[in-house]
Prior knowledge:
alpha/beta; 9 strands; elongated; disordered N terminus
Amino acid sequence: MDMxxxxxxxxxxxxxxxKNLSKFVLTAITALLILGLLTANAQxxxxxxxxxxxxxxxxxxxxxxxxxREAMLSLEISLKVRELLVKELPDVKILMTRDKDILPGNLxxxxxxxxxxxxxxxENNADLFVSIHLNSSPANQRYEKRKVGTRExxxxxxxxxxxxxxxxxxxRTVPVYERYRSPATxxxxxxxxxxxxxxxxxxxxxxxSSAIQDYVDADTATGELLQLDPVEARIKAQQYAKYxxxxxxxxxxxxxxxxxxxxxxxxxxxQRDWAGAQGIYVLSATQMPSIxxxxxxxxxxxxEEYLMSPEGQxxxxxxxxxxxxxxxxxxxxPEKLVEQPTTGSETD
Length: 348
């Protein structure tokens, strides 16, 4: 290879390296600028509208206990949350997806009602979506049998062959069993957030959400995202996803901490990531930070009794409100956003 070709090859390598370096620098600068913008706007964030979503309702009764159903208890707890929020956060608009034992929107199909819940929150430009449910477990619904005595049983045997065969009556002692429900062993609270891997779906609608305007300027939060350089668009999308995930995780963490403070057994914060998992739609289709709270296991007698009682409902509601107040405080202090991992993922 002659000297001229060597020089051309060397210059080509340098040009490629220069382009790659420029692209890297541009990416880094863009990331820093966006992060700075996000942080600056996050400091101005506040809660203006909260949607409280009592799970199930009407024909969709939800999980069952011995005396009541999830749809009723989730409504009673939610009404208590609304009552206390109105008193303690008078400057915040509190909306409910339902305030009686019906499916939201007075619908008859629970899948349509799920979409209605998310649309209701989006159309009202909510800043926060809190869905309240009760849990259940197959482990709390096991039945076993035990011997409770004996009885005499009559049976027959044949003696002889052909036409001369005769049936001979006999008796024997056999055990008598009783079927009973095993003691419930699973109890406690859980709070779900949308799994981080699912947030790209949520990000797809973020540009149309007024909630995202707390984080970025309105003109860059809409269609402009699609017009950006792919690198810039990916960075922004990641920041939007981080916005929703971290804020949802922060509130969910506060909720479980407050439950633990009043002595509840807390299972912590979990990511809901199975497509068929109940509640995935209201977490993924709402265009704002959102959580789903399991306030206890309705099929555990002690928890059902506690959550049916006015005292238990008051304690749970006040815990949720303390968590929301802490969350509101962190909106003015973004450095407090929770970045710790969740307890686990729901995959079955």
